[in-house]
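Reopening: structure tokens for the zinc ion complex, inputs below.
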Amino acid sequence: MQKEDVGSRKLNIKGIVILPIVVLLLIVSFFVFRSHIPNMNPLQYGSNRPKLEYSNYIPKQIGEKVDKSDVAIELEIFPSNYTEVVESNKFNISQKNRVQLLRYGQTVVEDGSEEDTFKNAISKLSTSKTPILLTNQIVSLYYKGVMQRFKLNVIENNLQKELLEELNNRKLKEIRDTVNECKSLLVEDKYEECIDLLRQKDIQPSNNLQRIDALNSYIGINSFLTDSKGEDVLEKVSNLLSENDTEVVKKTDVSIQNDDNSSIESQVYSDVDLVLLEELINSTEYLIKNLSDQNIDIADIAELGKQLTYIKEYTEKQNAGEDNDVLGIKGILSVLDYNPENPKFLLKSIKVKDQNILTVSPYIEEKTLVPEVLDSNFDEAYDYPRSAFVRGRIRLPILMYHHIDTTSSTNKFVAGLYVSPLEFEKQVAYLTKKNYKTVNIPEFNTILSSGKNPEQKTVMITFDDGLKSHYTQAYPILKKYGQTGVFFVISNRSYIAHQQLKEMANNGMGIESHSKTHPDLTKVSTEELSAEIVGSKSVLESITGKSVTGIAYPGCVADDRAFPIVQGGGYVAGFSCGRSIDISTSSKFMIPRVHIDNGLDGFIKILSVGGS
Ligand SMILES: [Zn+2]
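Re-run output (same inputs, fresh job):
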């Protein structure tokens, strides 16, 4: 009993002594806390100040300007640095990539090395001195990354101010706990939960929070309040960016520091839309104007504005063909970091000073920029109306070339045997752009044996006489465009070294027979005929290690004596000359090939109607 009395009295005394101490501590901690907040005035706007409301800033015509189809440029041939870029980066180029690049001036290739980050991709391109393309998407990610971080700062800053306001009439600990809990929710982007929590504790979002919300919406990030007024601005800003940017931006790490720009050795080209840049610059100016005297650190926003302005000037200068200083633009490339799930590169041709240059951008967008390429295109539109088909024949133009070189000869016949490398490249590029398949002898034989037109537009490209330019000019161009050629070589008089013939065969080219010594096959003895036809086959097979199943007759002539030897000697097809692009399925040893000379118009006509 006594003990209890003593105990309760002690408790009362304790309460009387401790309570004022707790209150005192609360007051002291309030002032200590206050002293760490440089400006405790909540956001207040005088009547002479512009209000921080989204309606003060309405982006103009955003979303309409950036039309992907506008930027598609059809190419006549690949940009001059194509091979260099593809080989030095070891890009895995598919035939569809080539078709897209020619049709739309751009294509997207997978990155062979997985787990690549944006920074690694830039460094890979830089090491190989590949021209880097700065795209709308990269700039948008940069912008959003800076804004995202800025948003968090603004919210935190202003929540502290809210706290100070509430401290005047509420218990410190409860407010502090609630606000801390709310802040940790915000870090997880749980804005609504935070607001609900504040409401539960009767901490109503004030006008200030609504202003902050308008700001958040304005910068294109999650609305702070559920009934945000800023939604249409959010939509407009989102239109600037790709659909998956919100996801991407979460994985994007942005910090502004320009110290390692110099490590980027590549030239950088800007493909950024000037309207987009202007809108983004306006937005930074708007924020700076409205926030600079609100004790919010705007250094990052100011730096962002500076960078965007630099890119705008850089783009304008580049578009005007003026020389540019690349150093500033590299700042953006050195601060972005992103870890994509499927690393890809955008290859895009851009025109600089009337020259097509292949540029490369680490590609983040998931949706496809360019239309798919379909292989079953046999009945797709032809540039020159195609002629009617002939019964019993299949449509498969066989093109015949001799020299792929320039000539100074004025002799009409001699000059007719020359197609310049540039003209040849244009013809091969045309075939590639139209997604023609080029076949070798076995593939040709399969189609012919089927007796039906192929599903994909198909040609066979052939070369006679095994000339030096076939190795030095034709072969690299065919390889570059992913096409194959059939080279009819005079086995005992090849102008191409045996090692080179082997190399060509190993890289998908067909090395076939053009006889042993190039005689008129109608004028040699039967023994010589056999040696020319069968002998040449075994010589070439021993050089390339691959079987020879096609022969082109010297001067395009052969007679009834030759055909049984050709067939009996293991050939599946014998080639002559002619005008037709329709091949008889029953006459495999007198197959017409159409002579090709310089010029694309005549070439296109031949593909539709044959020679004239
Ligand atoms: Zn010949």
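The pocket of zinc ion is lined by residues 464-465, 514, 518, 554 (CB under 6 Å). Residues 1-11, 18-71, 205-212, 217-244 have pLDDT under 50 and may be disordered. Marking as resolved unless the reporter disagrees.
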